[in-house]
Amino acid sequence: MRQSLDFPQVELATKIRAKYIRALEDEAFEILPSETYVKGFLRSYAEYLGLDGQLYVDEYNSRYAADHRPEPQRRPRVHQDRGLERKVVVVALAGIAAVTALVIVAWKFGGSDTTSGTPPAAVHKHVSKAPVLVLRGVGPGTYFEVRHTQGGRLVLSGTLGRGDVQQLAGSRFWLFIRRSTGIDVTLGGRSVSLPARKNLRVLVTPTRTSRSGG
Q1: Disulfide check for 136: which of 65, 112, 177, 184 has CB 3.0–4.6 Å away?
Q2: Predicted local distance difference test score (pLDDT) of residue 68
Q3: How many DSSP H helices and E strands does the chain contain?
């Protein structure tokens, strides 16, 4: 209510159905599918509101869960674009095949000249590698989303805890970060300077970083 949010907005941002968000607010945990979903939804919903999700999970464990032992830290749920991954593999295989063909051709035609005592020169082909985006958690838990274009398809998302790392190959990314101070970002091995703010939307490339509106 303080942030002037409604259930459809929260459902769209967290991917949690509105009826489950309402159940969390009303502590009607029997509506949710299982205890695991309760804890996961509590953590995601709290962090979306800028709160510490682990505190709410611990409170739930102390009041409702059958087993009160601390829950092990979960790895962030990551949605990978499988189509992009397959394209990267195909391009890499094509590059290897091209280098192999050039080496064979150079050896064949260079070796046919028996009058010269100079051995054929080796053929070297530089295979460029795409930069790698690296997201490293440095706080208690920060939600993030990664897209290749503004408003485009989601290729990577999750909540990074302290020490968690996620990587994605590419040279142009639109990032949404719930709390920018909770994540360190590098692209192609170079550190990306992010403004310290909540709900940060920013374009990151190897040469520049620009913040979008909203």
Answers
A1: 184
A2: 45
A3: 5, 9
